[in-house]
């Protein structure tokens, strides 16, 4: 996917130089925490036994640091957003982060992970959303120790931005994979969307109890149009699978209601919804307007639509990566890499920080402290005026939301 299309797919429609802060300026927020799956994983799966890893070429072919386990040729969505927010370095993976790095945020995402515990299990190890939330709770405990007390940690967390993007694998690597999972026969699409939304709500509220206040919830895109699903389900290799996309729309509708409910019921909550489904719809309807020529095949992969098997080690990808929407069977292409000096790349610690599970020992204390630290400037039911009906769809929308929840 080329730069223009990548900007659209990650809610960056403006010219990056105009949207990003000036060089040397302080970040717009002190910290950024990331939750998700292979679309944003940048190394956490390197520390577990899993087939869902991308720490080998040609992944990272256009990334200055080479293969890092980003499932892309270059930047991921959250790398671009970190740039927009003004961070000098990329947000590091939790598995390799030092204690001091927690102050500016970490990435908890894990490829193949889902909202449901069993999602993605055919691929081996992964950190489900509940595991990511438990790792966040562990990070908060560390922040309390670093900053000295719950109130200081609460004030710090109240100024942080969080992005959460889960659900794609719950459809692709669960509900629509009957050879491995029975959910497709046990739930109707409506029941499954209800179940996922209920689990999602419970875990997002656990994050809230541990201080998360400014949370962008990223909807699920048109995964029925991914090369993997086209290879398996499309007669002509072009027509998207409407059954999958229709099921995803049901889930996204519930996310919108969930965001509005949180903002109305949780003191100090500033949640918003990122309409990725709508963004992809715009791209697929007018690919040429985004500089794209190929939207139904991966730049790298094996089989029909380059979607039956993901990139093999040292496989030669397509040369015209800027014209492809998808890098491999699933994630969008990272487009062209931003110029960066070698010394500006994120320095990732060598020591493993394993997943941690523990009870909500300080949740109530952190909640009370964050509520004291928070203000209540809300812009519409979904926080920002541009997001009330359809969610964030542009760089201006994302930055508008950030500015007005500070």
TrEMBL record:
GO terms for molecular function: hydrolase activity. GO terms for cellular component: extracellular region. Keywords: Hydrolase, Lipid degradation, Lipid metabolism, Secreted, Signal. Belongs to the 'GDSL' lipolytic enzyme family. GO terms for biological process: lipid catabolic process. It comes from the Eukaryota. InterPro entries: GDSL, GDSL_esterase/lipase, SGNH_hydro_sf, SGNH_plant_lipase-like. It is found in: Secreted. It comes from Urochloa decumbens. This is GDSL esterase/lipase. Residues 1-25 form the signal peptide. Coiled coil: none annotated. Pfam families: Lipase_GDSL.
């Amino acid at each position: 996917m080329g730069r223009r299309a990548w900007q659209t797919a990650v809610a960056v429609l403006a010219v990056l130089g105009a949207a990003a802060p000036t060089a040397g300026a302080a970040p717009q927020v002190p910290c950024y925490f990331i939750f998700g799956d292979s679309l944003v994983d940048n190394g956490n799966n390197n520390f577990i036994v899993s087939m869902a890893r991308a720490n080998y070429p040609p992944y990272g072919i256009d990334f200055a640091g080479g293969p890092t386990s980003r499932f892309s040729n270059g930047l991921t969505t959250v790398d671009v957003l970190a740039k927009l927010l003004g961070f000098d370095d990329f947000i590091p993976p939790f598995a390799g982060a030092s204690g001091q790095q927690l102050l500016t945020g970490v990435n908890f995402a894990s490829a193949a992970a889902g909202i449901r515990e069993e999602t993605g299990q055919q691929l081996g190890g992964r950190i489900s959303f509940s595991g990511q939330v438990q790792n966040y709770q562990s990070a908060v405990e560390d922040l309390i120790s670093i900053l000295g007390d719950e109130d200081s940690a609460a004030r710090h967390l109240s100024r942080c931005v969080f992005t959460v993007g889960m659900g794609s694998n719950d459809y692709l690597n669960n509900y629509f994979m009957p050879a491995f999972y029975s959910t497709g026969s046990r739930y109707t699409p409506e029941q499954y969307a209800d179940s996922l939304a209920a689990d999602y709500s419970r875990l997002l509220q656990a994050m809230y109890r541990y201080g998360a206040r400014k949370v962008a919830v990223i909807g699920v895109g048109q995964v029925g149009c991914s090369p993997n699903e086209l290879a398996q389900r499309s007669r002509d290799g072009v027509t998207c699978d409407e059954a999958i996309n229709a099921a995803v729309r049901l889930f996204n509708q519930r996310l919108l209601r969930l965001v509005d409910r949180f903002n109305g019921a949780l003191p100090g909550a500033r949640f918003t919804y990122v309409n990725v489904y709508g963004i992809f719809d715009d791209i697929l309807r007018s690919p040429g307007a985004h500089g794209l020529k190929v939207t139904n095949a991966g730049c790298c992969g094996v089989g029909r639509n380059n979607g039956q098997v993901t990139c093999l080690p040292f496989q030669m990808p397509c040369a015209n990566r800027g014209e492809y929407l998808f890098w491999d069977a699933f994630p969008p292409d990272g487009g062209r890499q931003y110029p960066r000096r070698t010394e500006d790349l994120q320095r990732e610690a060598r020591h493993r920080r394993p997943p941690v599970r523990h009870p909500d020992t300080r949740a109530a204390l952190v909640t009370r402290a964050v509520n004291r630290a928070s203000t209540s400037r809300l812009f519409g039911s979904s926080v920002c005026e541009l997001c009330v009906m359809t969610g964030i769809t542009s760089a201006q929308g994302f930055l508008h939301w950030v500015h007005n929840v500070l």
